[in-house]
Amino acid sequence: MLTEKQIENTNCYHCHDALPANVLYADEHAFCCNGCKQVYLLLSANELGAYYEQDANAGIRPNNTAKETFSVLDDLELRKKYIDFQEGDSVRLTLHLPQIHCASCIFLLEHLHRLHEGIIRSTVHFPKKTATITVNTGLIKLSELAVLLTKTGYEPDFKSIDKSSSTFDKRLLLQLGIAGFAFGSIMLWSFPEYLGIDHSYSGIRNLSSYLSFAVSIPVLLFSARDYFKSAIAGIRLRSLNLDIPIAIGILALYIRSCVAIFSQEGPGYMDSFAAFIFFLLIGKWFQGKTYQWLSFERDFRSYFPVAVIKRTNKSTSLCPIDELQIGDEIFIRNEEIIPCDCILLSEKATVDYSFVSGEADWIEKKKGDLLYAGGKNFGESIQLAVSKTTERSILTQLWNEHHNKRTELAFQTRQDRISKYFIAAVLILAIVSSVVWLWIDPVQIPEIVTAILIVACPCALALSVPFVYGNMLRVLGKNGFYLRNTAIIERIQQCNYVVFDKTGTLTEQDHKQIRYEGRGLTEFEKLSLFQMTKHAVHPYARGIHEMLSLSVTDPGQDSMAIEIPGKGISLGLFQLGSAEFIGLENLHTDESVVYFAGEGKLLGTFTFQSKLRTQLKELVQHLAPDYKLAVVSGDKSKDLDLLRDIFPPGTSFHFEQQPLQKKEFIRDLQAKGNYALMIGDGLNDAGALNEAFVGIALSEDLVRFTPASDAILKADNLKKLADYFKFIRDGKNFLRICFAFSLCYNLTGIGFAVSGQLTPFVATILMPLSSITVVSLASFLTIRKKFDSVKAG
Amino acid sequence: MFFPVFDSFLCTMGMIYIMLIVSLCLAVFFLVIFLWAAKTGQYDDDYSPSVRILFEEEKAELSNHNQHKAKKDGTTNSKIRQ
């Protein structure tokens, strides 16, 4: 009876992945791996079974990572960065847990005290994906806490704690609150004015005017401060930005209103003034709501360990990688990453440079060899002597060059370019109309000029960009394309050259096509192969295992296979590995081949071919008319034919490119006047991503490491890239429409102003009306976009 | 017309003076609440409180409840025995 139910369940009860061939069971529930089962058992033993009821997506498959890295938390000096507060044994710390994703996560993390008595309290901050945990260190060590979290699937990420963004948000909220308060109050007090109160009620008029004046002071000094600052900076740097006409408009409004108040003519334009600031700040707030939980700023530091074990005299201690000196002796354990260029002191080592080169690339090193930073050690712990500090290592130097020279300042947004003409037009208009009024009535000239400056204030214009681009940012985010901020949208519109990385970007990262050549294998041989690869760590062996697990039904008993890291595996008479390992001449030089031999005779070979992502051809077809294309790869040119089939004839291919060469390729392109858009995925592309006008990092899942970039794209959505670009280019037109509307309002207002008919009442109606039109227009144009055209495929 | 007293100039204007002050006080009251809430970070996380409120402390409370019950029962039983 039970089994029927189990068969129906095709997904893991905990992590919801599809179940593999060998399923584990506990309490009638099916699990894909031991890790998931352990989490379930841990939770149910502590009566936290409700975890699965909070949200349908509950559960994260726990990773098997080295637990040693958490020893940083037990070092009193090093852990200071993460600890908020400490008194005696009780410690409060904030950890970044990038796996937080649903209501169940909050449930579990806030009930941690049930899992261990040493944990006193825990609170989750969902948008930032952090948990603030208070523990009693007498009962649980902080490293044990980190291990417990990792066991339940929430591995702490020590590298990206960023506390700066929230203070900015808070200040903006305060500014917004004060402006809103002033706007509401002044408008209320101005109602008698709108309804035509006259001089016979001067008492009430004066009171409301003076109250308005009092309330407006914090708006001018606090809420509007950033616009003045930015305008002054713009004038100083001689680059005209939109904040200049805004600041002029604000000042004109304010001074005109003060004059009106103190000459007892009523409250002037104070209501428009407060409303104006309020709307502008709303635009800013809207634009600023970006993805707090995604990190676009990661550098090599977020990839390297926080600290390594250093040997001084005869004792060992933890040392932060920034403090390593040339000549220091350090230990690197199994699966740890080498933090700087080093000389190997141990007899030999196997290092995996897949993060640097993009390929599964295991290299044997002997005593005295130079090991570059970024490699992962496999096998026994190794002893190294530091030959270059982390900052100076080959790989990390990519970041140290001043790649960000060409920053936002030099780049003029469309808005800023328009504002140049805008300022000129307003000034000319003001001069011309004052000259004309010289003949009509010279006394009115100051009145007319201030009126023109007031209505020409580009409020609606300033709101167009935040709302059009802010909405686009959100629409794209919902579809798996996350941009750092709205300025990136304009940059993408300018790009004319798209450069792809190959490994992991055009090809799938984890899945390769495996081709078997040789004689047919018997059941026994298959089974032996299955056993040999079962506990292997090398990605190729795991690939073969995965392939076999489809056909092998009865796994049989576990047997003892011997794996020699980086070389091969042997079991009884069977051998699997490199040609050298088996004792054969290498027949294939270019390709990734694994040899399988029995009793010293070659039985067959497994060839690993890159598998291109789905619908790549369609993507290239869509991109080709609008963009020039290029492919740069750190690989050998073995996949050239595969790519030639897909890319149009004009595409340039560059193989065997070191990270630095990739960066220089981009630099050359841009020196020739191109605007390059680079799409890459690994640490080896980081330099190029930074150098490019727009760098897009491709990520299999958003939690994993992504190099610093302007945008992050979910790998599954690469096929939709052409659609995204089209939508982004359409943004130009959306913006034009909004600009046109807001200019219409400005022109209407100027009509009133030039003819000397602008009254506070007209301004009060015109200004919010224009803002609201533009905001709703922007929402209407952008939000209805759907990306389902490609989704169907 | 019904209340000639309120129809006089003084009372109408007086009313508006009062309303002005009241509106200011109300607005300041809400402003202060808003500023306090923003400063203490209540707008930072707009998702987890909505989840947190639904957590059922059922297990802990139930067992407490049962214990209470057991105690009560125990006392009554002993009383009966006495």
Short description, anyone?
Chain A has 793 residues and is α+β, with helices and mostly antiparallel strands. Chain A is built from 28 helices and 28 strands. In chain A, helix 6 (164-189) packs antiparallel against helix 11 (270-288), helix 8 runs parallel beside helix 11 and helix 19 crosses helix 20.
SSE layout:
The complex is a heterodimer of chains A (793) and B (82).
Chain A: H1 2-8, E1 24-26, E2 29-31, H2 34-45, H3 51-54, E3 83-87, E4 90-96, H4 103-109, E5 119-125, E6 130-136, H5 142-151, H6 164-189, H7 191-194, H8 202-223, H9 225-236, H10 243-262, H11 270-288, E7 307-312, E8 315-320, E9 329-332, E10 342-344, E11 348-352, H12 354-357, E12 362-366, E13 370-371, E14 376-378, E15 382-386, H13 397-400, H14 414-440, H15 445-455, H16 459-478, E16 481-483, H17 487-494, E17 497-501, H18 502-506, E18 507-518, H19 523-534, H20 539-548, E19 562-564, E20 568-571, E21 574-577, H21 579-582, E22 592-598, E23 601-612, H22 616-623, E24 628-632, H23 640-646, E25 652-654, H24 659-671, E26 676-680, H25 686-691, E27 694-699, E28 711-714, H26 721-754, H27 760-783, H28 788-791
Parallel strand pairs in A: 17-24, 17-26, 24-25, 26-27, 27-28
Antiparallel strand pairs in A: 1-2, 3-4, 4-6, 5-6, 7-8, 7-9, 9-15, 10-13, 10-15, 11-12, 11-14, 16-28, 18-23, 19-20, 20-21, 21-22, 22-23
Chain B: H1 4-7, H2 9-39, H3 48-52, H4 58-81
